[in-house]
Amino acid sequence: MVGRDVSSNFVSRVLVTIGLVVLAALTIYFLGKLIDVILLIFASVLLAVAITGVRCIIQHITPMSRIWSLAATYLLVVMLIAGTVAVIWPQLAAQIPQFIDKVPRAVEQLVDSVERVPWATEAIEDAIYDRGGNGFDIPDHLLGIFSTTLGTIASLSLIVLIAIYLTLSPKAYVDNLLILVPRSKRQRADELMQAQTKCLRYWLLGRLASMVFVGVFVWIGLTVLGIPMAFTLGLIAGLATFIPYIGPILGAIPSLLVALVEGPMAVLYVGILYFVIETVESSLIYPLATKRAVHLAPAYTIIIQLAGGVVAGIPGVILATPLAVVGAVAIQMLYVRDVLGEEVEILGS
What we know:
85% of the residues lie in helices and 0% in strands. It contains 11 helices and no strands.
């Protein structure tokens, strides 16, 4: 009987282990299939966090109720968007055609300058021309751009729509999530979500300050240097700064390409300009943007961004850092403090 009980327990453990492995494999499989949806939901949450942050500020400094302060927030957002479009659209309408005209010529000059390197020439040909050797496949490229643009517009529309619903009744969604947590752990789960929300707000505040600083000073610097399309290039640089470390490099590429048309010295001056601006931004502006600056080590941030790019492409790169911020807060609170018993300063606290 004892042997039979031992054998039965062993079989039960094996079956439970197999079941857990299969469940984990299925979970990973479906998460991989739904990664785009998960990132879209997280982007909506990030936008909702930003909107509710502004709403809390308005409610704090005015006697408005939550509903009226939220309405004032949306009105403020609409006015800012309308004012920005009214100011920048005439300049963009005049400068974007120049940008589209100059970038291909800059790329051609870049190709000419590296044609003497065999491996570089082969890589450029594979990137620009189709594999059949029939030259630049214009219809396929245009179709790809068109479909990508439509997909981006649809995704942005869904992000805004979901964020609006989240901001209308955030407590209801939080309560629905807490129901899934055991009663004994709900208070801690609620504390975790509050800490993550506050941390994301501080991170967004720092990113906003950096984006404005970089965009304005790149615009001014390029104007002083006499680089065409300074406003458009400054706008691109400011938006790209949302992605820490990698974003500024990507934002500098269009300016360097345009400067290449103007001459080698222009490329040098533009490179120095970006280096100075990004150095000031990373060492002064971002830390001063908030007294509780949310800072992740550069090496960790870049590794996470690369991993996000491998898993989900460009959306993964864009959202990798805020996802890392949320994950870091969870690890600090639930593992380092609760499990290990170590005292650690929570990000954004």
